[in-house]
Amino acid sequence: MKKIWIPLVLLAFGLSASAQQEHQYTQWMYNKLLINPAYAGVRGTPTVTGIFRSQWLGFEGAPQSGLLSFNSPFLSDRVGVGAVISSNKIGFQRDFQVNIAYSYDLIAQENVSLRLGVMGSLRSLSVDYSKAKPYEPGTVATDPSLTNAKVNDFLGNVGAGLYGTFSQRFYVGFSVPRIYSNVIGFPNDGASLLAKEYQHFYGMAGAILPLSEDINLMPAVLVKYVQNTPFDADINVNLDIRQKFTAGISYRLGGDGIGESVDLLAYWQATPQMGVGASYDFTLSSLKDQQAGGIEVLFQTDLKKKKRKMSNPRFFM
Questions:
Q1: DSSP code string of the chain
Q2: Max mean pLDDT range (54-68, 145-159, 204-218)
Q3: What pLDDT digit, counting tens, does each position of 25-54 carry?
Q4: In CA terms, which of 70, 89, 210, 286 is 20 to 30 Å from 169?
């Protein structure tokens, strides 16, 4: 395993320079609730989803993320509720979040749906300075800013989103998971601001395009924007075979060259109510020679059968 020293300035609750601060997943299309509260209840049945992601394999202290989510209709098909517990760690920084979502279908027609969702979140951010290592092995860390203590901060926020489906084959969505710009970090030596949360704007769209009786082409795109940064996007194409096995490829913009990564995805519907998925990211940025990419594993289960028949509901919904 390669040893690297990650400067504290990159770890202390993000950068004030409006960098990407939200957790990101290659298999986002299977769990939109993390970034869009209007997704709650869309599948029409209680659903549990879990994802684990390990990025930059081979780096000590590399990012690792995980989430467990639940969403379901509540009292009627027009109302949805959901919850997401997620965590992210990089080096000796930890980010733990709990989100509660509510959605309401403003249209609720047979072939058209437009949900409005709201979300409340509680976030715990911590840095354990006692785990810091000196740059040179065998030397003593003498940086006076290191206190060998674990510091923690709690932040609350609210978010909102829209999610629409059309003809059971197309969807679009727009969301802002955290609207309020919290000041984050621990001021030291009179500093008034170490970092700040910025609104992350997400747009998503996807479709199911039948190629034959047994094969569907399923393109999808997730666009991300943060103030003072370029647009970012995940562009995905999946091929579904007999609503049993899905395989595809994604391209993630960003990085410092031709993109951030190219990703391979696969999903197997093991039973009518349970499926498992996996993805592997091939890094395209300048970090590609220093690590072995990233992996994700996913499981999803419906706690009861769907009330209505949908075209490939496990992906689309």
A1: -B--PPPHHHHSSS-TT----S---TTGGG-GGGT-GGGTTTTSS-EEEEEEEE-STTBTT--EEEEEEEEEEESEEEEEEEEEEEEEEETTEEEEEEEEEEEEESS--SSEEEEEEEEEEEEEEEEEGGG---SSTTS----TT--S-EEEEEEEEEEEEEEEEETTTEEEEEEES--S--EES---TT-S-SEE---EEEEEEEE-EESSSSEEEEEEEEEEEETTS--EEEEEEEEEETTTEEEEEEEE--TTSS-SEEEEEEEEEEETTEEEEEEEEEE-SGGGGTS--EEEEEEEEESS--SS--SSHHHH-
A2: 204-218
A3: 999 999 899 999 999 999 889 999 999 998
A4: 70
